[in-house]
């Protein structure tokens, strides 16, 4: 028996958010969970009775002083999500003291906090830039993605707070921080992760992405899968986090972004060059992450003369029929050779240059969790983005050359003729 509560927050503070994001938030009310047959899926619970109402006309036409109590978004939820007051969060984080900072990203800082009932939480602080509205869309994207769904391998969103130009998101606290800090931060950290632990982490991420890509309708593309966005709870259970760049996809429709966002080394080449977002973009990023989990290597080493990127190293090893050299030496041979080779080959399948050759996350999970024979699987050369700086300059020039009225409709035109990526600016 669920107890439901109404969560309201004033839309006037979010009045600069585009209709696209409000619509994104709205359509999440219709999620239906449809597990795929043949997959041993992790437990998933989410409410299907989400009700959202919004007076769009008033929220865009009235001034701050004219806003009234009718201007709000209302979410009927299962009781796990709530609106926090700024006073609560200030108290929980000791006035956002620097000693409590546990992380930071492109969209804000994260602080450890303790609520009045003793529960530990992570509080993300997003500052909205009024000119670009950077931070606002990320805030709404995370609310739209996480406020009404629960999955074992997705970070839990407990609530939010709006205070002036500040946006606060409150999550379950992850005792073991991120995969980047706990696992890749040092050799000592890597030694804590046995092959069994690494296998558990990789499969957990795969299950989380499978849920986002195929079980939810509309589908969700995360767009920023990387080690820093993979959190670990006290039991080292994998939690995908940071949905500030997430996009919804209806059926097989792709999304064209005029602003490529993401992290060098994890970006799929077709997304970086054309702005086209599909689920295969996430598959590419997962493949890079999978190579990292097995090898313990960083995504890119700017100080190396050759094979600076992990996908280059893995491909060279594969071509030399010596893929086993990619396995992290701290594992000290305590692993199944066939299994680590399978995981490495799945990683290479995911990073193939042609998106249509990459597996789906359903296929990835099947390969990783079953006795799948990989000996005769054909793998083609991986794609690689080595210079985001040049891409973004070209995008800006393309946008500036288009009239404002055509920028959205012509967003698919943000393409570049060459698929060969320059290494010249990598170490700058």
From TrEMBL:
SUPFAM superfamilies: Protein kinase-like (PK-like) (SSF56112). Keywords: ATP-binding, Glycoprotein, Kinase, Membrane, Nucleotide-binding, Receptor, Serine/threonine-protein kinase, Signal, Transferase, Transmembrane, Transmembrane helix. Residues 96-373 form the Protein kinase domain. It catalyses: L-seryl-[protein] + ATP = O-phospho-L-seryl-[protein] + ADP + H(+); L-threonyl-[protein] + ATP = O-phospho-L-threonyl-[protein] + ADP + H(+). It holds the Pfam family Pkinase. It is an enzyme of class 2 (transferase). GO terms for cellular component: membrane. ATP binds at residue 124. It is a single-pass type I membrane protein. Its EC number is 2.7.11.1. This is non-specific serine/threonine protein kinase. It comes from Lupinus luteus (European yellow lupine). The lineage of its organism: Eukaryota, Viridiplantae, Streptophyta, Embryophyta, Tracheophyta.
């Amino acid at each position: 028996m669920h107890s439901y509560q109404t969560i309201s927050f004033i839309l006037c503070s979010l009045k600069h958010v585009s209709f696209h994001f409000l619509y994104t938030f709205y359509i999440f009310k219709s999620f239906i969970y449809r597990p795929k047959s043949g997959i041993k899926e992790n437990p998933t619970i989410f409410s299907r009775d989400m009700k959202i109402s919004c007076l769009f006309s008033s929220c865009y036409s009235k001034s701050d002083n004219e806003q009234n109590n009718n201007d709000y978004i209302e979410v009927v939820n299962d009781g796990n999500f709530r609106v926090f007051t700024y006073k609560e969060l200030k108290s929980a984080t000791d006035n956002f003291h620097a000693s409590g900072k546990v992380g930071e990203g492109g969209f804000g800082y994260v602080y450890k906090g303790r609520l009045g009932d003793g529960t530990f939480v992570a509080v993300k602080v997003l500052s909205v830039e009024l000119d670009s509205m950077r931070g606002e869309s990320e805030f709404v994207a995370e609310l739209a993605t996480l406020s009404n769904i629960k999955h074992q391998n997705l970070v839990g969103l407990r609530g939010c707070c709006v205070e002036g130009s500040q946006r606060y998101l409150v999550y379950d606290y992850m005792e073991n921080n991120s995969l980047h800090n706990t696992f890749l931060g040092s050799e000592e950290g890597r030694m804590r992760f046995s092959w069994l632990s690494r296998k558990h982490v990789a499969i957990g991420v795969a299950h989380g992405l499978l849920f986002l890509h195929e079980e939810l309708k509309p589908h969700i593309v995360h767009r920023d899968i990387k080690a820093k966005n993979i959190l670990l709870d006290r039991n080292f259970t994998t939690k995908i986090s940071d949905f500030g760049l997430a996009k919804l996809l209806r059926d097989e429709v792709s999304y064209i972004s005029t602003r490529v966002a993401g992290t060098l080394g994890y970006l799929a080449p077709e997304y970086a060059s054309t702005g086209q977002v599909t689920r295969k973009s996430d598959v590419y990023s997962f493949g890079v992450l999978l190579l990292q989990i097995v090898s313990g290597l960083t995504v890119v080493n700017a100080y190396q003369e050759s094979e600076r990127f992990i996908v280059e190293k893995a491909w060279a090893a594969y071509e030399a029929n010596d893929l086993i050299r990619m396995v992290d030496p701290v594992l000290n041979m305590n692993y199944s050779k066939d299994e680590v080779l399978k995981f490495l080959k799945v990683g290479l399948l995911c990073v193939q240059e042609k998106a249509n050759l990459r597996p789906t996350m359903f296929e990835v999970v099947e390969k990783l969790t079953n006795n799948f024979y990989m000996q005769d699987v054909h793998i083609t050369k991986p794609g690689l983005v080595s210079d985001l700086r040049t891409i973004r300059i070209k995008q800006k020039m393309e946008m500036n050359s288009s009239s404002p009225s055509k920028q959205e409709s012509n967003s698919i035109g943000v393409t570049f003729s060459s698929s060969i990526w320059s290494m010249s600016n990598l170490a700058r």
